[in-house]
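Open question from group meeting: does this chain pack into something compact, or does most of it stay loose? Before anyone orders reagents, we agreed to write out a predicted structure and look at it together. Recording both the input and the output here so the notebook holds the full record.
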Amino acid sequence: MYWDAQNGVAQVVLIKAIEMFEQTFKNIDDILHKDAGCGSELDYVEQTNWILFLKYLDDLEKDRATAAELTGKTYTPIIDKDYQWSIWATPKGKDGKLDHHIALSGDDLADIQEKDHYDVVLANPPFGGKERAEVQQNFPIKTGETASLFLQHFIKILKAGGKAGVVIKNTFLSHTDNATVAIRKTLPSTCNLHTVLDLPGGAFAGAGVKTVVLFFKKGKPTQKVWFYQLNLNRNLGKTNPLNENDLAEFIELQKTFADSENSWTVNVKDIDQSTFDLSVKNPNKKEVIRLRSPNEILDEMRELDREADEVLESIAKLIV
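Structure tokens returned:
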């Protein structure tokens, strides 16, 4: 601490305030760091912000209530009574002092957080959505891609040992933008990404893209990833949807993570550590290239010519 003759009192007050806030943050960090799976302060920055916001809101409501009382008006609080700071964070006894018997602190607050975590998460987040910058600020890895934000959220809300199955675009496995690469690195480092189910097009009506299902368990890092490529002898759609029988082989092989014509295992150490590209081709299935007959090629050329003629006719009508 230092002293300035002219502004000494103000500086002492400021320094005291800074020390108070530093201690407050330390107390919050000590509580939240007990949350299962937390590796750094970034893992619970959302909770820290929420606690500080509730305290700020409590002070704001007190000021507004006082102003309303002075003008003879009735003030209605913004937040319900049960969730107000004075109720759950600083409950008071009949003497008006803090009631230490029912005040929530330490392990009690950690228990509240644990209640907000889940043993199982099964989700199919929306694809293609774009989120505003202010929404992205709530996540450690900033991205406008809605599905990527949801995936971060799912990882966070899982309990230690919790399991998840999440449907996501297959491009997540290979996209090279910074956010997607960062999430691909975070997932296997915080969870055991044990299975990737590669689904054929049309598995989800209206999705418009191919999808994969990521199966992971929170708590231990990934050592190996088992891939299964679902190959069907038909096209999927609304009138011909994916059914339980289609997944019979996957369910059976997944029990032991067995290799087959449609499944294979990749060691995490063998994955490119710079991009963590997970779009691994099936090494057990030989790709058969089907050559079209001359008649098929001619038919396609005629169809293309027909479509071109229709376009030219439409343009001609516009000119006339």
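Observations to bring back to the group:
The two ends are 85 Å apart (CA to CA).
The chain is about 40% helix and 15% strand.
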